[in-house]
Amino acid sequence: MNLEQLRKQRAKWLEWKNIKPLREVLENLKEFDKYEYFLEPTDWLTLKSNSNLNNNEKELLEKTAKALIPWRKGPFDIQGLQIDSEWQSNKKYNLLRPHFNLKDKIVADVGCNNGYYMFRMLEDQPKRLVGFDPSPFFKTQFDFINYFAKTDIKYEMLGVEHLEFYEHKFDFIFMLGVLYHRSDPISALKSLNRALNPNGEIIVDSFMIDGKQEVALCPAERYAKIPNIYFIPTVNCFKNWLNRAGFVDVELIEITQTDSDEQRVTPWTFEQSLDHFLDENDKSKTVEGYPAPKRAYLKARKK
Ligand SMILES: C[S@@+](CC[C@H](N)C(=O)[O-])C[C@H]1O[C@@H](n2cnc3c(N)ncnc32)[C@H](O)[C@@H]1O
């Protein structure tokens, strides 16, 4: 199947019975066509227009955004409506911000979710910005935000596995929160490598475990209640994966311990978040008895 056929096939996912009603809800947004919106790439990704909404419009906006709960990534402020997402994604973005300059680059965000990072990356004026995420639900959240932002970010309902067959290569690829969901992490990193232009760069993160050894934890079933977590490496193991996938200049940007400031329940999320995923008597462990979530962020360059 070529790229065009794949796109057509996946576009049909927007008609699934749980997604179609949400696509219909987006029709409400036509009511806001009379306003012009300006994007401010701040921590609360803000969309503002010059005139205020009346009470009916405020209600409609809120109703439409609430139909798209759960908001995992954000936060967003649309004309005063504050969508306080489960994750304060601004923390991750701000941590990485000093480590890239996307000016005039062709950029991919793999596992882009609703596009929060990409909307912020616009501040660098990249040449092209493409988000990859196979989820029709997150694509619908992206379409909601982009209805106001009217950016030319391209959202592809494709995965990391399609990246190397894409119609062009990239200068910079972000892949955050995805690697531990891949059963073959080195192959996933090789795909990123093949999708890069010469000297292209990546920033990638992973859950990690402490230790100097070059080993990875393979959870029995779930990790912090999350299904499909395959390998959780030490930093040294993670660096080896990158080297073995053809990257050089591998640099550890930062290690962070996820806390309930960064990931928590809000009125815009599911009813459970980090606090429910940790052992209630020992917050250094997950409910399954594994080390609590810690992340390593690495940057590397294609040889
Ligand atoms: C844990 S979230 C990470 C979101 C965001 N990148 C971040 O770091 O906050 C993982 C994302 O990967 C997406 N995803 C699932 N399968 C994928 C695949 N095969 N390729 C790329 N992304 C995928 C999910 O839909 C989800 O949005």
Strand-helix topology:
Layout: H1 3-11, H2 20-25, E1 37-40, E2 45-49, H3 55-66, E3 76-78, E4 81-83, H4 89-96, E5 106-110, H5 116-121, E6 128-132, H6 136-149, E7 154-156, E8 170-175, H7 185-194, E9 196-207, E10 216-217, E11 232-233, H8 235-244, E12 247-257, H9 274-277, E13 278-279, E14 282-286, E15 294-302
Parallel strand pairs: 2-3, 5-6, 5-8, 6-7, 8-9
Antiparallel strand pairs: 1-2, 3-4, 9-15, 10-11, 12-15, 13-14
Bound molecules: S-adenosylmethionine.
CATH class: Alpha Beta
Please give the CATH architecture. 3-Layer(aba) Sandwich
Which class best fits the helix and strand makeup? alpha/beta
* Radius of gyration from the alpha-carbon trace, in angstroms: 19 Å
Task: Please identify which CATH superfamily we are dealing with.
Answer: Vaccinia Virus protein VP39
Percent range for β-strand residues? 25-35%
What features would you describe in this structure?
- With 303 residues, this protein is of the alpha/beta class.
- The protein has helices at 3-11, 20-25, 55-66, 89-96, 116-121, 136-149, 185-194, 235-244, 274-277, and strands at 37-40, 45-49, 76-78, 81-83, 106-110, 128-132, 154-156, 170-175, 196-207, 216-217, 232-233, 247-257, 278-279, 282-286, 294-302.
- The protein has a seven-stranded mixed beta sheet.
- The mean pLDDT is 95.
- It binds S-adenosylmethionine (SAM).
- S-adenosylmethionine binds next to loops.
